[in-house]
Amino acid sequence: MKAFFTATLYRPLFNALAWLYENIAFEDLGMAIILLTLGVRLLLFPLFHQTVKHQRITQNLQPEIKRIQKHHKEDKETQAQKIMELYNEHKVNPLTPLLALLVQIPIVIVLYRIFMNGFSAEALNLLYPSITLPELPNQTFLGLIDLGQSNIWLVGFAALAQYVQGKLSLAKKKGKSKEQPSKAEKVGQNMVTFMPILTVVILFNLPAAIGLYWGTTTVFSIFQQLIVNRSLNKEEGKKLLLGSHGKSQGENKGNI
Q1: Deepest in the core among 99, 104, 139, 254, taking most CB within 10 A?
Q2: Contacting residues for 48 by C-beta, under 8 A, at least 6 apart
């Protein structure tokens, strides 16, 4: 299994990092890490886009889900059926987050190993013949940060980006609601605070290369979240406009 992942994921991604370092990143490992991270996220953008969209739609459906759960609290089978009908009506696939996770996990693990190892002697043995690197590759970011050592500034940047991404992932409720937040909503709110703390704990003693990757991929997620939020806001605005237009037409017919 290790040989399979090395051949199919580790070696291609490591060589992509080396190629970026040699040809585009001005022999700056930090810039190469940023470019590789953005490249991978762009390739996976459609899948992650669907995941973020799914999350937003599911949050918007929470009031309706609560009503179903309250109305059918004694009949779990009917409750589940009604919730699935609601998902189908809004074209939501509950398995979408799981699919994204299954695709993401092996890639994240491989990138983690690549950035942990850097341009070590063992890693350099995996270079394709067409790619050559200096005998002592530069393993810093902007000539200032040693990516092989922990760096508190990159840790702080990654944690701050994680907090912003978490806040954006929570859908804003329109108007003041007297309803108590659901368990899922409470978990989401708690994660906004917990994830930055967890980020600091994880990254504090790890090489700065991991912190740079973590911060870069989180910043990408922030822009992705903004794009999805804007797209969904437009869709919801159109639906409200069409709904009010249809209602006004009905009232006019009634007056006639």
Answers
A1: 139
A2: 41, 100, 221, 224
